Amino acid sequence: MPAKNFHVRQAAVSALRAWAKGHDYAESLVERHAHRRMLSSADRGLLQAILFGVLRHRRLLDHWIAELRKGKLDPETRDVLRVGLCQILILGLPDHAAVNETVEAGKASVRGLINAVLRRAVLTRKRLMDEVADLPPAVALSHPDWLFNRWKSAFGKKEAIALMEWDNRPAETFLRINPLAPACEVTGVPVDGAPGFHRVEGQPDAALLAAGAIYIQDPATRHAVELLDPRPGERILDACAAPGGKAFLIASAMGSADGLVCTDSNEKRLPRLRENLQRLHAGQAGVSVHDWTKPAPVEWHGAFDGILLDVPCSNTGVIRRRVDVRWRLQAPDIAIITATQRRILENALPCLKPGGRLVYSTCSIEREENHGQAESFLTDHPQCAADGTREALPFRDHSDGAFAARFVLRDS
């Protein structure tokens, strides 16, 4: 008879197999597999803890597998072992449940092997854990060598290690009180320097979320909108808007979404954007599909007082939230991403009114995408003036990584 919760472990293995084949991102896989197996809220939480734990510590888990099992493993059996070792050595779940219920998630032909490896991990746990301190930092903290070396060159070894440690911590939950909704009280710790934002333990109040009185949002998102400084009566473009977090901050500053135009390159993301703005009492923004790697419609030229370009980026500032970024991103991708960002900047600039301001923002910590991109853009566009930057670095600011630069189009 199958162990009580083997289906959660089985879901974790299935999600890992789908992820390895590039089918979806980790966050989406949790929802899909929890729904497919009709998991309870508690079991969904366990599935997420296991899946995210494996992806955060994948390289270290593979090191332990190599220590405990000599010889080749097929990909599915390796994923089963990752799931088991994550529970035993990372999450600290009870040994009996971690071993027995994970064994049941494997194919019958390899259950003996899985059982032997996991029981060996239980017996040698202290040695395995003690030896982690002697491993290379990128192995111990489960990051690709190229990323660790890149950060070591940019920030120094101590800060690069601090970055990897930060990425491996479960992300905190923050909410923002909606100034456009009726006043409410929330339980949480106010965030210094970020009015309206609170750090919360556990799940936020579902009724307040449904009513639009609060919104889940990291304080790092505010930097770009504060730099944009949208004002009532202006016409503002949020060019890469879905799912609407920064659009909501813009609407809050303006008093409503009147005068706000939101675009996204993916039409399927727009309904959620509209729903979010309506639920958050922001009213109706102009919403349309546009790919900003292509020229803007002529009617938008010279039409906006302010433009926010929250561009596609490497996401290296938010790896603790997007746990699989470290494995999806490859070194050559940075140059491809920066070229895309530059095309978006070039195509958005004509839409700015003389004297208007454009804010370029990322959730990256890479110089090429941030200060380097801003400096290059200003060199090629003397009609624009630099007007301030914001930067958040996790090892320094203890928040998600973010960057924003404001450019002002000089009056002719």
Please, could you describe this protein's structure?
The structure is a single chain. The chain has 412 residues and is of the alpha/beta class. The protein folds into three domains: 6-135, N-utilizing Substance Protein B Homolog, Chain A, CATH 1.10.940; 140-169, no CATH class; 218-409, Vaccinia Virus protein VP39 (Rossmann fold), CATH 3.40.50. The protein has helices at residues 6-20, 26-36, 41-56, 58-68, 75-91, 95-105, 111-123, 125-130, 137-140, 145-155, 157-167, 206-210, 222-228, 245-254, 270-279, 325-328, 333-348, 371-380, 394-397, and strands at residues 173-177, 189-190, 197-200, 214-216, 236-238, 260-264, 286-289, 304-310, 352-362, 384-392, 402-409. Strand 5 (236-238), helix 14 and strand 6 form a beta-alpha-beta unit.
Describe the structure using short key phrases.
alpha/beta; 47% helix; 3 domains; N-utilizing Substance Protein B Homolog, Chain A; 4-stranded antiparallel β-sheet
Q: What are the SSEs and their pairings?
A:
Layout: H1 6-20, H2 26-36, H3 41-56, H4 58-68, H5 75-91, H6 95-105, H7 111-123, H8 125-130, H9 137-140, H10 145-155, H11 157-167, E1 173-177, E2 189-190, E3 197-200, H12 206-210, E4 214-216, H13 222-228, E5 236-238, H14 245-254, E6 260-264, H15 270-279, E7 286-289, E8 304-310, H16 325-328, H17 333-348, E9 352-362, H18 371-380, E10 384-392, H19 394-397, E11 402-409
Parallel strand pairs: 5-6, 5-8, 6-7, 8-9
Antiparallel strand pairs: 1-3, 1-4, 2-3, 9-11, 10-11
Helix pairs in contact: 1-2, 1-3, 1-5, 1-6, 2-3, 3-5, 4-5, 5-6, 5-7, 6-7, 10-11
